[in-house]
């Protein structure tokens, strides 16, 4: 269990660093969409190398092609995520935009769990989860207020 928790934390750390890296790339390429394209091309190359080395097992492409078409929307959502988060980070900064991304993820993941959307088991909504989202919203508001208050940010 500790390994999974640390892995999820590491994924979050990687996303935060990746946003800063891709924001820089966005300024020097064709903007957020161009940076998103480069991001996914590099990511596809890394995934290909990992597959060739057998990391995580070999994908069953026949099984993948048999899945419903909507299953492939994850890639489209990912590309939009990168482009939108880069646009937000360029104006709001990496901290505020990351907090907003996490808030958005928390909201949609709770809806998915609460209603069993996208083939997930139903996990009822509980008040501590609503409180957590409200606290995160407060943190976003505070971070943006602090950013606006600080000269040169």
Automatic annotation (TrEMBL):
Source taxon at top rank: Bacteria
InterPro entries: YdcZ (IPR006750)
Presence of the UniProt keyword Zinc-finger in the record: no
Transmembrane segments: 36-56, 63-84, 90-112, 124-145
One GO location term (cellular component): plasma membrane
Keywords, ordered alphabetically: Membrane, Transmembrane, Transmembrane helix
Pfam name, any one: DMT_YdcZ
Name of protein: Transporter family-2 protein
Organism per entry: Deinobacterium chartae
Taxonomic classification: Bacteria, Thermotogati, Deinococcota, Deinococci, Deinococcales
């Amino acid at each position: 269990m500790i390994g999974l928790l640390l892995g999820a934390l590491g994924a979050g750390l990687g996303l935060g660093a990746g946003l800063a890296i891709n924001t820089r790339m966005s300024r020097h390429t064709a903007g957020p969409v161009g940076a998103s394209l480069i991001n996914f091309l590099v990511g596809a190359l890394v995934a290909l190398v990992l597959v060739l080395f057998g990391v995580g097992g070999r994908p069953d492409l026949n099984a993948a092609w048999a899945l419903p078409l909507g299953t492939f929307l994850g890639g489209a959502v990912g590309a939009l995520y990168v482009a939108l988060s880069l646009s937000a980070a360029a104006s709001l900064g990496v901290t505020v935009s990351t907090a907003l991304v996490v808030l958005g993820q928390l909201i949609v993941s709770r809806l998915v769990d609460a209603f069993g959307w996208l083939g997930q088991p139903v996990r009822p909504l509980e008040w501590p989860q609503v409180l957590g989202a409200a606290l995160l919203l407060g943190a976003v508001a505070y971070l943006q207020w602090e950013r606006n208050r600080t000269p040169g940010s």
